[in-house]
Amino acid sequence: MKKGGILNARLSAELAKLGHGHLVTIGDCGLPRPAGVTCVDLALIFGVPTFAQVFTAVTAELAVEGAYLAAESLERNPEATALVTRAFGEPELCSHEELKRLSRESVLFIRSGEATPYANVILRCGVSF
After folding, report:
1. What is the mean pLDDT of residues 98-121?
2. 22 catalytic, yes or no?
3. CATH: 3.40.1650.10, 3.40.50.300, 2.30.22.10, 3.30.565.10. Which one for 20-125?
4. Peptide bond into 49 cis (omega under 30)
5. Cα–Cα distance, 48 to 87 (Å, whole number)
6. What CA–CA distance (Å, rounded) separates 27 from 121?
7. What is the pLDDT of residues 44-101, one digit of tens each?
8. How confident is the model at residue 1 (pLDDT cuts 50, 70, 90)?
9. Is the overall model pTM greater than 0.90, yes or no?
């Protein structure tokens, strides 16, 4: 048995497959899942697990070189914006529609149970060396 980290077997396995430059979307429960992108759905009920919980767990195990946020999140979801900014500095901003389009290029889509608007981020994988 693992001593810590992500215990969800599917999510742990999908994270282990990622490489430099791959995109990973962490979305709220309302963000459309792009066709053809591997999805790990963690949503249990509205609000569980939160965006912050999923973001914190995933980024603890993933080398990240950059993040994309919808510009709308600056005003509509300052908590999510602050969380991402504290972790990686200023994110690249795009419109919410562009973020949804960019999510189609993701290798992995992780659906949280978050039910607040604009609790979405796309992470660009880096390397740990």
Report:
1. 98
2. no
3. 3.40.1650.10
4. yes
5. 22
6. 7
7. 999 999 999 999 999 999 999 999 999 999 999 999 999 999 999 999 999 999 999 9
8. confident
9. yes
Residue 32: count of CB within 10 angstroms of its CB:
10
User: Shortest CA distance to 109 belongs to which of 43, 54, 46, 39?
Assistant: 39
Per residue, the 3-state secondary structure of 41-107, as one string, reads: ECCCECCECCHHHHHHHHHHHCCEEEEEEECCHHHHCHHHHHHHHHHHCCCEEECHHHHHHHHCCCC
Query: In this structure, which amino acid lies at residue 65?
Result: E
C-alpha of 26 from chain center:
2
Q: Tokens representing 127? A: 């390397």
pLDDT tens per residue, range 13-26: 999 999 999 999 99
Looking at residue 48, its amino acid is V
Say which of 5, 7, 10, 20 is annotated catalytic: 20
- H/E stretch holding 9 reads helix 9-16
